[in-house]
């Protein structure tokens, strides 16, 4: 199976400015994803970094990842969708390499806590499943949908979508709820190119442990990852 791994790292992040190359415990954030990706390079035909930013591209090269081209600027804005940069990269590389890829593995730098085992198990699951995609998820416990509320037109608090029965313990909420943590996406090439989707119609979950499910969207997330990485090291 021809698998392509893409590490997306644009330069214009807002929540944590320049986060992809910002120092985290003495190393750029990008290091943690490139390191674990390169440990699994036997799984892939190619591992590339997708960025529009020349400084990030240079850091990626120093970390040992290919940067065969810079991402078009229109796929690196605040409004850009991941599917656009992935589709663009696949079609470009197929033309360069003269092959058709079977699937793409997307590894976001904003999930520095994923480990080699997560990538290998997700790929194994993808290969043996009749699925359009494998998406890493973590179980929602303290943020189960039953806890979500809305403020109605009269200013009172109301259930958002699921009624929370007073006195229910959080571990007793059924069915279990899961959230996409962003650590691993594996998608069929045809689902990307023909259906313009990273999910497809049939999604298979790879359940990642809670302690590896933190994605960085804010400085609070950043500090939590710093603490977890120090603990792991």
CATH topology term: Spore Coat Polysaccharide Biosynthesis Protein SpsA, Chain A
**Which homologous superfamily in CATH is the superfamily?**
Spore Coat Polysaccharide Biosynthesis Protein SpsA, Chain A
- Domain count, please report it: 1
What percent of the residues sit in helical stretches (DSSP H or I)?
25-40%
- The run of helices and strands is EEEHEHHEHEEEEHEH
For the record, the CATH architecture stands as Alpha-Beta Complex
**How many strands in all?**
10
SSE layout and pairings?
Elements: E1 3-8, E2 23-24, E3 27-28, H1 29-39, E4 46-50, H2 54-62, H3 82-97, E5 103-106, H4 116-128, E6 133-140, E7 149-151, E8 157-159, E9 177-188, H5 189-193, E10 203-207, H6 219-232
Parallel strand pairs: 1-4, 1-5, 6-10
Antiparallel strand pairs: 2-3, 5-9, 6-9, 7-8
Features:
alpha/beta, two-stranded antiparallel sheet, 6 helices, 233 residues, 21% strand, Spore Coat Polysaccharide Biosynthesis Protein SpsA, Chain A
């Amino acid at each position: 199976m021809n698998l392509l791994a893409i590490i997306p790292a644009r330069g214009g992040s807002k929540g944590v400015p320049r986060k992809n190359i910002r120092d985290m415990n003495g190393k750029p954030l990008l290091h943690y994803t490139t390191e674990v990706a390169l440990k699994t390079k036997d799984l892939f035909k190619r591992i590339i970094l997708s960025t529009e930013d020349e400084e990030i591209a240079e850091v990626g090269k120093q970390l040992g990842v290919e940067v065969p081209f810079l991402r078009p600027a229109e796929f690196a804005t605040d409004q850009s969708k991941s599917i656009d940069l992935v589709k663009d990269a696949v079609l470009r590389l197929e033309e360069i390499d003269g092959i058709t890829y079977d699937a793409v593995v997307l590894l976001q730098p904003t999930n520095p806590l994923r480990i080699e085992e997560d990538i290998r198990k997700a790929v194994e699951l993808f290969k043996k499943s009749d699925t359009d995609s494998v998406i890493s998820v973590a179980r929602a416990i303290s943020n189960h949908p039953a806890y979500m509320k809305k403020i109605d037109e009269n200013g009172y608090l109301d259930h958002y979508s699921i009624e929370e029965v007073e006195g229910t313990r959080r571990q007793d909420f059924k069915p279990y709820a899961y959230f996409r943590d962003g650590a691993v996406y594996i998608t069929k090439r045809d689902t990307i190119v023909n259906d313009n989707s990273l999910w497809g119609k049939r999604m298979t979950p790879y359940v990642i442990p809670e302690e590896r499910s933190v994605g960085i969207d804010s400085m609070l997330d950043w500090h939590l990852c710093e603490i977890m990485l120090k603990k792991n090291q």
